[in-house]
Design a protein that fits this description.
Helix content is about 25%, strand content about 25%. With about 475 residues, it is an alpha+beta fold. It folds into two domains: about 80 residues, Sandwich (Immunoglobulin-like), CATH 2.60.40; about 290 residues, Purple Acid Phosphatase, chain A, domain 2 (4-Layer Sandwich). Strand 11, helix 4 and strand 12 form a beta-alpha-beta unit. Helix 3 packs parallel to helix 4 and helix 6 packs across helix 8.
């Protein structure tokens, strides 16, 4: 008997030592799956059909939930508690009609505390889910996964939807690799093109990773999402600026913001050309959260990358629309996608380089804004041209899937950028502020923006009229 105990002790010692020698970046979690395991999981996920995902609430004490159903529900409900004992608190919401056959049930949970693990389940009509858990961020800082251009894709010539399953698995693999590196992350930031055609089936695929039930996902409307209006119905975003406020309402829900830690996140639909509405949205969000130290904007279109010569005319117009807003309201970082190439600018102000930071991985009190574009998380693109003169760093690859882990503290934001299956980041960049103002210039509003804003809003009005007529004709079987 003593020999058995000794043998077991030796085995335990070696097991502990072996575990300690394994890097956390390569340690497997319960979320790692092989392709065959994903096939099995996918069948269960599809048969359930509810496609739950979480989104951030308006502030750290809130969390938004959304899931799918086939009939309207008067009181979709989420049940939440923070301990194994005690009763669940109930939170009810609304039903949002997606089309004739589908509804999105949307609920906001409030009263959450930092650094807590919560148990929850949800129900609508005769359906009740199993129990899941999520964890709120720490009060003194948090980390987030930043991705872009996931492109969950439903091929119309594939009736079995295998492409949705496969592209969803590609995203889940990236999500899991990031989670294995940092299992304290409490947010996913996506800079758009979550879906390839803007179809409901693609968003169902996007929400398929089991990590979606654990970590909230904040999405931006990309040009591919904007091909349809499903995005506006399934993305349950807080503090939306649109109907009732907008001069020209956006067909895909408008801009929105939330506060997490000491960061004001401004999510902007860059497909929406109503410049005056974007200006009013940012102004309102900043004024309502003037004491928040960091300001981070998230939009789809890459303003400064310059990797696609054919897009420069579009980018020039977008810079006229957005750069004066980011300058006036002292936005620290703008996160974008669209080009499928990772890049980071110098510090920019007024459309020009205000600080040359080539070769620098750390900037303190930047005199302007840094624009960071993530490479595609699941669809790399080759055959691109060199970056623009505005770039301090870029990473061009036609093979690498890119993701970024961002660490937010009171004084710094650090971005670690990775390619899939690599332990070390290919780029690390830190922005530091010694005060709420940092080094931002304070030169006031550009008078010419009045003209740009009105032109953009007029264009948006025309686009809205066209969309109304397209929808009307499509309803009677006429397509353009």
């Amino acid at each position: 008997m003593k020999k058995v105990k000794l043998s077991l002790s030796i085995v335990l010692v070696f097991a502990i030592l072996a575990t300690a020698m394994i890097s956390p970046a390569y340690a497997l979690s319960s979320y790692d799956m092989s392709a065959s395991q994903w096939d099995t999981y996918w069948q269960g996920y599809k048969s359930d059909g509810k496609a739950l995902y979480m989104a951030p609430g308006g502030n750290e004490s809130e969390m938004n939930f959304a899931w799918l159903g086939n009939t309207e529900c008067e009181n979709p409900t989420v049940y939440v508690k923070s301990s194994l004992i005690g009763s669940y608190d109930e939170f009810t919401g609304i039903s949002v009609k997606i089309d004739n056959d589908n509804y999105s049930y949307q609920v906001t949970v409030y009263g959450l505390l930092p650094n807590r693990t919560y148990m929850y389940y949800y129900s609508a009509n005769d359906y009740t889910s199993s129990v899941n858990t999520f964890k709120t961020g720490k009060a003194d800082g948090f980390s987030a996964l930043f991705v872009s251009d996931v492109h969950i894709s439903e091929q119309t010539d594939n009736p079995d939807g295998e492409s949705v399953k496969d592209t969803s698995f590609a995203f889940h693999e990236i999500f899991t690799q990031a989670y294995n590196k940092d299992n304290y992350m409490s947010l996913v930031i996506s800079a758009g093109d979550q879906a390839d055609h803007g179809l409901l089936s693609e968003y169902i695929g996007l929400f398929s990773s089991p990590l979606m039930k654990k970590i909230p996902f904040a999405a931006t409307c990309g040009n591919h999402d904007n091909k349809n209006t499903v995005y506006a119905s399934v993305i349950n975003s807080p503090n939306r600026y649109n109907k009732g406020q907008a001069i020209v309402p956006d067909k895909n829900g408008g801009d929105y913001y939330f506060v997490k830690g000491d960061v004001l996140f401004l999510f902007i639909n860059s497909n929406w050309t109503s410049a005056n509405d974007h200006y009013n949205f940012v102004k309102q969000a900043v004024e309502e959260n003037s004491d928040v130290k960091w300001r981070v904007a998230v939009m789809h279109h890459d303003l400064y990358g310059g990797h696609h010569e054919g897009r420069e005319d579009e980018n020039r117009l977008l810079r006229l629309m957005f750069v004066p807003i980011f300058d006036e309201f002292c936005v620290d970082i703008v996160l974008t996608g669209h080009s499928h190439v990772y890049s980071r600018t110098h510090v920019m102000y007024g459309g020009k380089v205000s600080e040359d930071i080539r070769g620098q991985g750390h900037v303190t009190d930047a005199a302007g804004t840094v624009y960071i574009t993530s490479g595609s998380t699941a669809r790399p693109r080759g055959n691109v041209s060199a970056g623009s003169d505005a770039l301090a760093y870029d990473f061009i690859s036609e093979y690498d899937y890119i993701y970024n882990i961002m660490d937010f503290s009171y004084d710094t934001i650090t971005i670690n950028s990775y390619s899939k299956d690599n332990f070390s980041p290919f780029e690390v960049f830190t922005l530091e502020k010694t005060s709420n103002e940092g080094g931002h210039p304070n030169e006031g509003h550009n008078d010419l923006y009045f003209i740009v804003g009105n032109i953009g809003t007029l264009v948006s009005f025309v686009q809205t009229i066209i969309h109304i007529f397209e929808t009307l004709f499509a309803s009677i079987g006429i397509e353009f």
